[in-house]
């Protein structure tokens, strides 16, 4: 696909586009990553061939997640990336689950409305401890093979994938 075709697919989203060594790189906002990957899958990039995270060199509080997609019929590849910033949370241990309440007002709408891995948000001003986490929407319902990649990223970098049904460690306990 030509860059113009990709731009027409992602119009309406915040993005940066670059071509390096013949590979198209698309950086999108974390809030838009799920929608952009959904649109790209339904526009000929059917296969997720790799997904990994990397800490940002210039800032220890940011991770970048990369998704590599391929169109086998045309032998075209694209790399989609998004940056994940720390979100400060308050939590308290309960007998049934870890209850979480967002304290960061810039957190995206996914985190405002959804349960995080079967954890419940606190709606009251109960006494809590603060900690920092990284969150992003899981894409396993778009690309089922993302299951392994997301679990590996979770284990290595403690990035939580919202909506992942089996976010458990692969290698270490």
Give an account of the 3D structure.
The protein is of the alpha/beta class. It has a domain of 82 residues: NADH:ubiquinone oxidoreductase Nqo5 subunit (Beta Polymerase, domain 2, 2-Layer Sandwich). The strands form 2 sheets. Strands 1-2-5-4-3 form a 5-stranded mixed sheet, covered by helices on one side. It has a 5-stranded mixed sheet with strand order 8-7-6-9-10. About 22% of the residues have low confidence.
Reconstruct the topology from this structure.
Layout lengths: L2 H7 L5 E6 L2 E6 L4 H9 L5 E9 L6 E10 L4 E10 L1 E7 L4 E5 L6 H5 L6 E2 L7 E9 L8 H12 L1 E4 L11
Parallel strand pairs: 2-5, 7-8, 9-10
Antiparallel strand pairs: 1-2, 3-4, 4-5, 6-7, 6-9
Q: Roughly how many Å apart are the termini? A: 43 Å
Strand order of the largest sheet: 1-2-5-4-3
- Radius of gyration, in angstroms, nearest whole number: 17 Å
Architecture per CATH nomenclature, i.e. the level-2 architecture of one domain: 2-Layer Sandwich
SSE ordering:
HEEHEEEEEHEEHE
Number of discrete helical segments: 4
**Class based on secondary structure composition and strand pairing:** alpha/beta
Q: Any idea what the shape is? A: globular
The total count of strands amounts to: 10
The parts where pLDDT drops under 50 for at least 5 residues are 93-130
CATH superfamily of one domain: NADH:ubiquinone oxidoreductase Nqo5 subunit
Mean residue pLDDT: 79
Helix content: 10-25%
**What fraction strand?**
35-45%
CATH topology of one domain: Beta Polymerase, domain 2
The quaternary organization reads as single chain
CATH class annotation of one domain: Alpha Beta
For the sheet with most strands, the description reads: 5 strands, mixed
């Amino acid at each position: 696909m030509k860059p113009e075709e990709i731009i027409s697919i992602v119009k309406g989203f915040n993005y940066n586009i670059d071509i390096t060594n013949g590979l198209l790189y698309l950086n999108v906002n974390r809030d838009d990553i799920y929608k952009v990957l959904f649109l790209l899958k339904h526009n000929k990039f059917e296969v997720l061939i790799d997904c990994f995270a990397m800490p940002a060199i210039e800032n220890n509080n940011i991770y970048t997640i990369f998704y590599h997609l391929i169109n086998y019929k045309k032998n075209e590849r694209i790399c989609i990336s998004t940056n994940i910033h720390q979100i400060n949370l308050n939590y308290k241990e309960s007998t049934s689950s870890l209850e979480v309440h967002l304290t960061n007002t810039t957190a995206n709408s996914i985190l405002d409305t959804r349960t995080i891995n079967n954890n419940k948000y606190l709606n009251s001003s109960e006494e809590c401890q603060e900690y920092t986490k990284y969150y992003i929407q899981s894409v396993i319902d778009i690309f089922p093979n993302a299951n392994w990649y997301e679990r590996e990223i979770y284990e290595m970098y403690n990035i939580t994938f919202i909506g992942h049904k089996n976010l458990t460690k692969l290698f270490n306990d």
